Structure formats: C-alpha cells, structure tokens
Amino acid sequence: MIIDSAILTEILIDLQLSYAESLGLKDFRILEKIYRDFKLEDTENQRELDLLHGLYVLEYRNGLPWYDLNPIVRDLLIAEGMIDGDRSQ
Q1: Cβ count within 10 A of residue 35
Q2: Dist. CA 64–CA 29, nearest whole Å
Q3: What Cα–Cα distance (Å) separates residue 21 from each residue in 38, 40, 73, 87?
Q4: Staple 82 to which of 5, 6, 63, 77, CB 3.0 to 4.6 Å?
Q5: Alpha carbon 69 to its chain's center
Q6: Residue 63, C-beta contacts closer than 8 angstroms, at least 6 positions apart
Q7: Does the domain made of 5-79 have the CATH classification 1.10.1040?
Q8: How many whole angstroms separate alpha carbon 51 and alpha carbon 55?
Q9: Cα dihedral sign for 81, 15, 20, 29?
Q10: What are phi and psi of 62, to 5 degrees?
Q11: pLDDT tens, position by position, 52-77
C-alpha cells in the first residue's frame, strides 16, 4: 500500500477527531494557557496531568522542563480560533 497525501490527510483528520472528542471548553482554556506560557499552571491539577499523560501536552526536558502542545492539538486550537499559531507575538 502506498500512502499518498489523501490517505495522510484522512489519517490526520481521524487523529484530530479522536483528540477533540474528549475536550471541553475548560480543557481548551487550559491548553491555550500552556501554549502561551510553556508551563503547567498547577502540577497538582488532575486535568492538566491527564492532558499531559494523554499526550495532548508534551513535556520537554532540556535545561529546565517546559511544555508545549502536541502539534495535532495545536492545530485544533488554531481551528477553534483560540490561538493563531504564530509564536512571534
């Protein structure tokens, strides 16, 4: 089987839908804040930890730990108009 751009697009859409299924408005706000601040607001907050463990949020450890959104989740926030995806602002 050859994976062409149509198949890849379909797979990405399916992944976005599976990530979006369990997200509510409160989750989108948490994710938006993590995107802007590169950190979790409260490491004792179970929902933030769930988003981290569910790979909605990715942890990076190079020097100091910092956090960013999974690229698929970032695209969801862009589609919702919550972020513009341009880090230069």
Answers
A1: 20
A2: 24
A3: 24, 22, 11, 26
A4: 77
A5: 4
A6: none
A7: no
A8: 6
A9: negative
A10: -135, 90
A11: 999 999 999 998 999 999 999 999 99
Q: Contacts for 83-86 with beta carbons within 8 Å, 24 or more apart?
A: 83/32, 83/35, 83/36
What tokens were used for 52? Answer: 């981290």
pTM of the full structure: 0.85
Supply the DSSP symbol for 9.
H
The string of DSSP codes covering 11-70 is HHHHHHHHHHTT--HHHHHHHHHHHHHSS-S-TT-HHHHHHHHTTSEEEEEESEEEEEE-
Phi, psi of 64 (to 5 degrees): -110, 145
